[in-house]
Amino acid sequence: MALTETIIRNAKPADKPRKLFDGGGLYLLVVPSRAKYWRLKYRFGGKENTLSFGVYPAVTLAVARNLRDEARALLVAGIDPSDVRKQERATKRDETVRLEAQMRFSVDNDGALSIRLGARRVNLNPLETVQLRAFLDATRAVLPKE
Asked: Could you tell me if 27 and 39 are in contact, meaning their C-beta atoms sit under 8 angstroms apart?
């Protein structure tokens, strides 16, 4: 029997975690702490896997079903949805690192450059900043183009 919002809302926790199945491998895991987690059980490469979709009510039944359908489409295409999620997280993590690296360099209104290296901070006055830029431009001119 497919789940409904009413069934989900009224699901009470038991002594042990229990699963309320919706279909297509999607189920709601109701744990004793009253939390309700969306999960997808699937097989890929001959192994059983589980994919998490979030916590009810933040992730509604309709959203969970859409996520299930997207994961099933990936499986039909021969792609493990877990690998896709890991790749997305790695990309997001790399983007965060890149943005943090950009924030390590700042130029004040008067042209002074500040460089943050971990806990250390190097502050150049405007003249030193001009000299550093000239040095970097000269270095770039000498380096071979790729």
From this structure: yes
